[in-house]
Amino acid sequence: MAGPVCAAAVLILNKKLSGELKNIKDSKQLTAGKREKFYGALSGRTDIVWSVALVSEKIIDKIGIDRATWLAMEKAVLKLEKKPNFLLIDGNRFSSHKLKPKIYNLIVRGDEKVFSIAAASVIAKVTRDRLMTKLSEKYAKYGFWKHKGYGTKEHFKAIRKYGISEVHRNSFLKS
């Protein structure tokens, strides 16, 4: 309901991952503390290259959440320091104007099945959560530090009380 959509691209340079990293899974299945721990572990590795891209709530309102998500994914891939030969993408649909059409494979629930997709989900979630926490300094009355901009009862209550902020997605708040 508020804030940008965030996507990450992860490239694994060494297939022999060890230790705690092997336990990375879908970011939605991890606590905030675990996500932060994995984010730190991923950040400290030279054999894992990753990038993050954001697409603003204004663009989301203009082109829709699906296309905005695909755009964020495309931007994240294009920002990678090393270019992958092939992409594994979480989901059942994807569209890109800048990536070669046949260099990707869609995997439904990929963040539960593939390490690089799970790692990307953790990186994107932590990045977005940190951004929403930072935005809560400017928009404290909305409680972004708690719900990170998602559609909770508390968030709806704040919107009814204070109205829509400039970081809210108008397309998500039409009714």
UniProtKB/TrEMBL annotation:
It catalyses: Endonucleolytic cleavage to 5'-phosphomonoester. Coiled coil: none annotated. GO terms for cellular component: cytoplasm; ribonuclease H2 complex. Residues 1-175 form the RNase H type-2 domain. Its cofactor is Mg(2+); Mn(2+). InterPro entries: RNase_HII, RNase_HII/HIII, RNase_HII/HIII_dom, RNaseH-like_sf, RNaseH_sf. GO terms for molecular function: metal ion binding; RNA binding; RNA-DNA hybrid ribonuclease activity. NCBIfam families: PRK00015.1-3. Its EC number is 3.1.26.4. Keywords: Cytoplasm, Endonuclease, Hydrolase, Manganese, Metal-binding, Nuclease. GO terms for biological process: DNA replication, removal of RNA primer; mismatch repair. This is Ribonuclease. Pfam families: RNase_HII. PROSITE patterns: RNASE_H_2. It is found in: Cytoplasm. Belongs to the RNase HII family. Endonuclease that specifically degrades the RNA of RNA-DNA hybrids.
